[in-house]
Amino acid sequence: MEITVAFNGKECIAKVHESQPDLILLDVMMPEMDGIETCHRLKANPITEHIPIIFITAKTSREGKVEGLDAGAVDYITKPIDLDETLARVRTQLRLQEMHKENISLQERLAESRKTAAIGAITKGLAHNLNNLLGVTVGYLDLIKHSHDNADLVKRSIKLMDNATIRMVEIVSQLGSIATQDNIQMATTPIHRLIETSIDRFLQESGVDPATVETMLMFDDKEKMSANNEIFENTLISLLKNARESYLTGTAPELRMISVQASITENENAPALIIKISDQGAGIAKEIENVVFEPFTTTKTSVGRGMGLTIARHAVRNLDGDVTLKPNPEGGVTATLIHPL
Asked: pLDDT digits over 200-243, tens only?
């Protein structure tokens, strides 16, 4: 072991910045700046906060030891020092520090691997879906060329080409929203208005495929939050569409029940809006339950589907929120949207 020595708190902080040690043995009683203050300053600096500190103290009281641990120390040694005990504690902390570094490195490699896999999945799904949609467009265009004198066939072909083109535009738009992470414009808006506007849009866009939405808002109408209105509406609408599509084709609107329950509660020690969207549909198919948030994951046979949940989770996570799905015991699924206030 290479040892560097400092004789007071100020000198300690200066030398730590120079040499970045793996471990600090810090005496509590020192001139000018005591060990507790020195520890506080080291832990307040992002450059040095990760360095483990073992206090050396003459204080044998419980209060003295707790004070050191509260300051950020990982361990303490009481005077008079026993060399074997000191070395054992030092080696333990160095091993823990090495494991911590290996864990961080593993997490970074895992994150990079997931990122690469996600890019691969998006690229593969994008190529597959756009090729299929382009195939539809080219096929009907050829049909029009050879049957241009058949008005009904031309009209039907143009409509199907138009639908395929709209799908392609939607896919490109969704990919654009994944790529855009910066410069998100936020505004303070009444929460009930955000939710009600989203549900109104969903019902209008449902067209011939409607559902019945029951809403329960468990907070005062005056409650507001900082949000990007477009991201919020698109996310909530995507979750509502997912709930509606979980019911079998042909199910009557009054039987396509979707429950929306919103409340304000603590999430990781910060206030957040929690919205639960529940349905009584077919639930999550076994073959996709572990990859339901992956790009282009869907049980639908139509082309260009499977990006809604991917976009929803990605957009909300960029705002430090989250989207989760959980099967209901009685059937169906509950999607939970967590949005920081």
From this structure: 989 888 877 788 999 999 998 889 999 888 889 888 988 998 89
* Helices assigned H by DSSP within the chain: 9-19, 35-44, 62-71, 83-146, 151-179, 191-206, 229-245, 308-317
Return the closest-CA partner of residue 11 out of 44, 38, 49, 50: 38
CATH superfamily of 187-340: Histidine kinase-like ATPase, C-terminal domain (3.30.565.10)
Q: Report the distance separating Cα 323 and Cα 235, nearest Å.
A: 9
Fold of 9-81: Rossmann fold (3.40.50)
Q: Can you read off the two tokens belonging to residue 154?
A: 């031309």
| Residues 168-200: b if buried by 16+ CB within 10 A, e if exposed | beebeebeebbeeeeeeeeeebebbebbebbbe
Q: Where are the domains positioned within the chain?
A: 9-81, 121-179, 187-340
Prediction pTM value: 0.53
